[in-house]
Amino acid sequence: MSFSSEAKDEMSRVINSGRHCQIAEIAAIISLCGNVHISKDDKYMIRVHTENVAVARKFFLLIKKTFNINTEISIKRNTYLKKSITYTITIKNNDDALKILHTTHLMDEDMEIGEEMSLVNNIIIHNTCCKRAFIRGAFLATGSISDPEKFYHFEIVCPTEDKARQLQGIINTFDIDSKIVKRKKHYIVYVKEGAQIVDLLNVMEAHVALMKLENIRILKEMRNSVNRKVNCETANINKTVSAAVKQLEDIKIVSEKIGFDNINENLAEIAKVRLDNPDATLKELGELLDPPVGKSGVNHRLRKLSDLADTLRDRD
User: Which end of the chain is more exposed for a tag (fewer CB within 10 A), N or C?
Assistant: First the structure.
């Protein structure tokens, strides 16, 4: 089971005790993966389609617990994609469908199907707990989370820009910086920062998924930290080795062209010590001198030898 499926399975088992929260979650599910059918004689019917059995179970339980309404569940297997199964939950009774639509504010007083998801005026998302339930319902309906071992990405697919803006506004009330991008005919509300996805899982009360993601984040950060240190140390070693090789080449030029007897005594001393200790650090070289010299003093002498070697090269 994928990380996203595990998170949905966990959320499908979260049933808020408050009826207002249950209504908010139902509204989100119908809004994003439901359809309202109106017959020729003006009879209403609600259908919710999902490929996730956990979502189907959650919607069935919410409708039963909140409205004490019976629903019908049908299962359809895609003949072309053998593993693809669609679950359809249907509220066929006209009065039941109207009751749900009015209560969730998906239908106005004029019997018009609409969604006034105002953060200020809409009673179903007035409370913080209801906002949490609405986001959870939206995620169950059309959301997904990538495998955090690979990368961090949370998204909820919306059919219209207005729905995406409404959902983004609700998510952002929790100090989460969600963004919107258009993908083909849909609008995607997404979050890509690992810490904020953790916050979102907390908002949706998916605490097991949250802990799993946090553990993965910690391990990844530790690995990244170790890799950075190793890369830094490797770079320093390469830099030290390259510098030592250059110093030995410079000393060889000086020795061959003019000899150590014809240069400053201090330079001759450091040249001989470097030749005898090609792998030593600047600090170690300084300790081998008599009297000992600090790193900056050793570096100064080696730089003088390098300048002298460059001068001798230019003469050729």
Answer: C
Sign of CA dihedral 123, 128, 134, 137: negative
Task: Please determine, for residue 301, whether its predicted confidence score (pLDDT) is greater than 60.
Answer: yes
Start-end of H helices in 34-93: 53-67
* Angle at alpha carbon of residue 134, lines to 204 and 28, rounded to 5°: 130
For residue 127, the SS3 value is: coil
Mean pLDDT of 159-180: 92
* Residue 82 burial by Cβ neighbours in a 10 Å radius (0-12, 13-18, 19+): exposed
Quick one: tokens of 238? 């390469």
Cα dihedral sign, 5-9-14-15: positive
What's the CA angle centered on 214, arms 210 and 215, to 5 degrees? Answer: 120
| CA separation, residue 199 to residues 71, 147, 171, 204, 277 (Å) | 34, 17, 10, 9, 56
CA distance linking residue 124 with residue 28, whole number of Å: 10
What tokens were used for 311? 């001068």
Helix, strand or coil for residue 128? helix
- Residues 175-201: tens digit of each pLDDT: 999 999 999 899 999 999 989 999 999
pTM exceeds 0.90, yes or no: no
Collapsed DSSP state (helix, strand, coil) of residue 193: coil
Rounded Cα gap, residues 184 and 52, in angstroms: 23
DSSP 17: S
How far apart CA 204 and CA 171 sit, in angstroms, is 10
SS3 content of the chain, % helix, strand, coil (to 5): 60, 15, 30
Between 283 and 134, the more confident residue is 134
Alpha helices for 127-281 (secondary structure H) = 128-142, 161-172, 194-203, 207-257, 265-276
